[in-house]
Each structure stands twice: as structure tokens, then as C-alpha cells.
Amino acid sequence: MKYSYLFLAISIFAFSIFTSSCSSEKNSNNVDGFDPMAYRGSDRVETLLSSMTLEDKIGEMTQITLEFMCQNDSEGKRIEPHTLDSSKVSKVINEFKVGSILNCAGHSYSPEHWQKLVGQIQQESIKSKGIPVLYGVDAIHGATYTYGAPLGPQQIALAATWDTSIVRSLSTETAKEVWGCGIPWNFSPVLDMGRDPRWPRFWETFGEDVKLVSDMGESMVKGYQEGPMPFAATLKHFLGYSTPWSGKDRTPAYIPERQLREIFLPPFQKSVDAGALSVMINSGEINGIPTHINRFILTDLLRGEMGFEGIAVTDWEDIKYLFSRHKVAKNYKDAIKLAIDAGVDMSMVPLDLKFPKLLKELVEEGEISEDRIDLSVRRILTMKEKLGLLDSERGIMSVLVTEDERNIAEELTLIAAKECITLLKNENNVLPLSNDQILVTGPTANSQNALNGGWSGTWQGTNPAFNNPGRLTAYEALSQNLEKVEFVELESMDFSSSEINNVVSNIKSSNPETVILFLGEMPYTEVVGNIDDLTLQENQIELVKAVKSTGVKTVGVFIEGRPRSFDNIEHLLDGVVMAYLPGEFGGIAISEVLTGKFNPCGRLPFTWPKHPSSHVTYDRKYTENVHSDFSMNAFDPQYEFGFGLNYSPVITNTLKLIDGKEYHLGDSIRVEVELENIGDRTSTEVIMLYSQDLVASITPSVDKLKAYKRVSLEPGEIKYVTLSFSSNDLGFIDQNLNYIVEPGLFNLRVKNKTAQFSIIN
């Protein structure tokens, strides 16, 4: 039998995450000879550490939000523009020795204002203790909180480009912007797997596929950290955050260890191997254990197995939530002990100073050793050293981006926005639009906020006051590209039936050739975006029905961060375009795609479910194909993972194995694909190579993505393209939780072309 050959086995821990304990008494320091306490910093770090008091050390492990140090008026509201309260700064820095600050206080600032605020904090920190603070911020699609900096496509949109080079370039430009504000630490990228579109942070992911997420994450980390200035990425949210059972943010997840290792772990491992300097911890719980107290995940797995040596920071207030929400600790003090024992290095407190007080008490009472404190502080000081913060006055020497650098960033942002737009349906070539009369309407048609999504100027991204000036909405961009554009405004997402009737009246009176309906969602993130139904909002469904009842050609453009189910109206739409959250140049990008100035080349990084309860991913098991009539066609999504159309079709003529049909472990498996552009426009095709394991000791997936490449072809051009991957990548996690590659037969597929090969002893 095939599974009698365990070809490749990487030994991993024998105990299961189901039984891993959150108790400080369970100490697996010696598992496989790993001892986390053996970690040492550089001579400079060790010398500095030896000179620090206990208060100094605990301060380094404490992270406070900027808002905590700002001046308020007599009613307790922040003074604008934000001004630091010197007494609060003194308390935070001088009394409690706080080593890290995060965030803005409410909204974005100009780069100059950032420099002023951060510079004042750094001056106080250097004067007080000789060590600058480590300042961090969420700059997740461009410099989120820097006014004037371009806001690019969100991660789900970047994934739709299948272009790792543009992701890396954009990340480097983001690092320049953020570093120019005096901030060397970014809480990005999100490496959570986007496999459940109900989850409100789905749009912050790179989609559902392990390889695509891994590649995109690695490119983003390298873009941040290998640019011209010292800068740190943060891998978040470690681990298994994105698939809560309910689909709602920060609610329980139930993930078998095999899935944890095979699906959720690889993106983090690849970015750890790329040198990522920090991780942020999953705010939720897995199998009943909050991740912030799960020593198996935070120490045995992250440190011992994955080899990560950077810092592990909590998410917002998550240690406090251990007793106030999760109910696994008696009080805050007990929660701190559990988290530190598990492997937390830094607490994003962030709104009070109880954490350092209580942590000091725990050390003085012998509940936590000072050696354990030293371990985290070594990691923090080492990160500061790598960022240049231990060099003379590095904390106040940031340089603003130049006008040329800003222009480059804007150009890259527009390119990425255009590359992500995905054409999903184009009956009778309704697109691209001609110069005939069109009518534009829909709740997202004239909203810059809708294009940007959450984390844009503000946390939820809903305040238009902090949008960069001069950016065009989708409607505004179309009206500049076409001569005959009529616009019917809808007041809000909650538009009424009378507003729908008004749209219909305008269609009948103006008789447009085509109606463009901009559908989707307005910005949200985290708990605010929780939903009970994945179906497209009811009034939008009624809008589509009403418009189509007039007989006019109708195109639906979805501006949204997750695929909302719309099967009951899909047949009414002549054209369907997914724009995702394309950023502030998304209006121009959408317009250029709709008018044919840009040939769409985006491809879905997720499976679009046809029904709200049928979100099955592409890498499903064969039993998920079984229909109620016992046929094998149960997998019937609205649109499949990797799907997308061009205005000029590219076909796959042949798929050939280059080096024969038998391979050993470690061999490179190469294929040649013949592509042909049969249309009249230059087209960019994304070739995707999938593998199928025909027999395995663990039920195999129907498809697994192994390689992909973007290829541009001129009209009528034929190209021969080589794709390759290692035979080592054909493995899976076996019954003993070992990674193995088994010998046997495999299929390869590019679209409808296949080839078969064997892995042999």
C-alpha cells in the first residue's frame, strides 16, 4: 500500500494541541533539546541588560497607546491637533520606563506632525533611560495613518494580482513613508488564512490558498525589511485566528493539529525564514485554549520548532481579556502570569499602567523569575538594536519621503489597483463600455471610503474627513473617461424602495445603453464587521431586480472585502466585476477596466460561494464533491478560486513534463505550458499549476496549487512557459503529525490540460 512508504518525515512534537496545557507547570523546554532560556543577545544587548533595573526591564515589555499621553480639554476630549501632555509622558517614560508606544490617537497625521510627536517621546526616553522607545503602527495598505501618503489595495486585492513583485515594491514604499514619520515598526502583514468569508477581517488576508498566502507574505516582509532603512514587519495573528466556528471575530476556533500545521502554519514559517522580526498573537482561542496562554503555540511551536527569535507582542488588551472575556484567569495579575509563562514578550496594554505594576509584583513574589523577564527584554533590545534604535539618537533622525518617492508610490499603487480588478462575467461582450450613454448608481459608486476599506485614516475607515484630497470615486473617474454619464445618487447603504423607484424612473427617461451598478459594502474591521448572513444586502438585491426589469444591459461592480452571495440575481447581470478594496486609486482603476483602457487580469484569491452556507475552499476533499443525487458535482461555487476573464482570451494548448515521468524526493518537477492569445488585445494571463495526489494515507485534496506565473502575450502570440516546483512540496501531515511525501501517482493540471507522473523510491 502507498502509505507503507514514509518517504520524508520531519519529526515534530508527539503531543496534540488538543491536550497541550496552558498551565505554567507544564514545561516542555527540553522537548527535542530546545531550551528557550538559552537565547542570548549581542554583547551590547547583554551589557545593556545587565545595567537595567527590574523596573527598566518590565517597562520594555510594556506597550502604551499614544492616546494615553495626549492632552484633553475640560470635557475629556482630545485637543486638536494632538498635543502631548508632558506630565503623562513623564509618568509613562520616567516613572514606568515604558519601552514601546503604538498607534495614533484617533486619526491620521501629516508626516511633520508625526515627526514632532514621536520626536518628543524619543527625546524624553533617551534623556530618561538612554534607550529610545519602539514605536509601532498599523500601516496595512500603505501608510494608513499618514495623511497624504497613498492608500493602496488591501491585502485581499493584492492577492488578486498574483504579482509578488508589486507587493514587495509597495511594501518598501510603505516602509519609507512610515519610517519617515519616525516609526520603524509595522503591524503587518496579516498571514491569517482567508478561508471563511463570514469573518470580518477576511479582506485583510491574502486569500484561501497556502502557497499564495505564503508567497505574498514573504514578499511583503522582504519589502518592509530589506529596503533602504531599518524597518520591522509583524506576522499576525499567530496562529489560527481567521476561522472562528461562528465566523465572528475573536470567537472560538476548533482546529485539529493536522490542519493547523498543514494550512495555517506554512505562511508564518516562510516569513519567519525570511527574517521577520516580530509576531502578533491571535486574540482568540483554539480548542478552548486562548492563544495568549498556549505555551505549545507560543514557545514549543514558534520558538522550538519554527526557530523564531524575534518578539511576540499581544494584540489590543488581550492579556486583560483573559480574565474579563475568556474567564481562564482569576484576575488581571493571574492573567499576566499565564501569558508570560506561555511566551508573551510584550503586552499591548494599552490604556493604563497596571501591567508593569502587577508584573513587578509577580517577580517580587517569586511567581515569575527575573531570568524569564530577561529573556523577553533580550528579544526586545535585540529588535531595537537591529532597527538602529540603540545607536546614538537614532530615535529622532527619521527623514521624510521626497516628492519623487511619493510619486513612485502613487504610480505603484495605481498599477496594483488596476492589476487586481477581476472580470467575472461578460455576456455578449457588454464590456468594455462604448461611448454610448450610461447610467451609474449604487451605494458604493461615489464613495472614496468604500474603495479604501478599514484602517484608512481611522480604524474603521469611515470618516471622509481623513481621505486624501483629489482622489476620484468610481463614478467621478468614469465621468472623466466617458462623455455621457448620468449619475443617480443613493443616500446610504440603507437606501429605500423610493430611491430604487427613482433609479428606475431615471433609466426610463434617459434610456441609457448600459447601467453600471456599484454594489458591495462600506468599510469595517474586526467585530464591527460581524454579520449573520453572507447574502448581499436585501436592498441591493432589489435594486438589481428593479434595474434589470427595465430591459437595460446591467453590469454589477462589487466594491467589498469579502464575496457576498448573490446567486439569486447573478443571472440578471450581463457583466460582473470584482474590485475588492482597491484603495484610493481604485476609482481610476475601475474606470480604465470598464472602458477598456486596461485589459483586466485579476484572478480570485478565494472561492466565491454560491450560497451563504456553502463556503467550501478549492482544496476540498473528494467527499465534498458528492451531490445529493450521488453524482460528483456538488462543488458548484459562484466562481472558482483563480478564476478571472480577459477582454482578449488566452488559451492553454498543451501541458508537458520536461524531465520525464518519474521523480525522486528533492527533484525539481518542471513543466512546459503552451499559451496562445486568441484575441485582439495584449493580455496578461496567470498560469496556475495544480497537483492531485491520486492515493494517500490521509484523504488528499482534489487540487493543490503548486506554481503560478503572470505572463503577458501580444495579440495572436504563442508562448512556451516553464513552471517548476520541488517534489518535496507534494507532502502532507500524516496520522502521526509528521510531514511526509509518499511515493505514487500524481496528476498535474493547468486549466483543462493534464499530465501524470510518479514519485518513486
> Which strands sit side by side, in order, in the main sheet?
11-16-15-14-12-13
Number of individual domains: 3
Radius of gyration: 27 Å
Q: Name the CATH homologous superfamily of the largest domain.
A: Glycoside hydrolase, family 3, N-terminal domain
CATH class of the largest domain: Alpha Beta
**Range of helix content:** 25-40%
Tell me what the CATH architecture of the largest domain is. Alpha-Beta Barrel
| Biggest sheet layout | 6 strands, mixed
Structural class call reads: alpha/beta
Could you list the spans in which at least 5 consecutive residues all have pLDDT below 50?
1-30
Which band does the percent of strand residues land in? Answer: 15-25%
CATH fold descriptor of the largest domain = TIM Barrel
Number of discrete helical segments: 20
Mean pLDDT: 94
What is the overall shape?
A: globular
Quantity of strands, as a count: 26
Distance between the ends: 14 Å
Topology overview:
Layout: H1 43-50, H2 54-60, E1 62-65, H3 86-95, E2 100-102, H4 111-129, E3 134-137, H5 155-161, H6 164-180, E4 185-186, H7 210-225, E5 234-238, H8 257-273, E6 278-281, E7 285-286, E8 289-290, H9 295-305, E9 311-313, H10 318-324, H11 332-342, E10 347-348, H12 354-364, H13 370-386, H14 403-420, E11 422-426, E12 438-441, H15 448-452, H16 474-481, E13 485-488, H17 497-510, E14 514-520, H18 538-548, E15 553-559, H19 567-570, E16 575-578, H20 586-594, E17 650-657, E18 662-663, E19 668-677, E20 683-693, E21 704-713, E22 718-726, E23 732-733, E24 739-740, E25 744-750, E26 753-759
Parallel strand pairs: 1-2, 1-10, 2-3, 3-4, 5-6, 6-9, 12-13, 12-14, 14-15, 15-16, 18-26
Antiparallel strand pairs: 7-8, 11-16, 17-19, 19-22, 20-21, 20-25, 23-24, 25-26
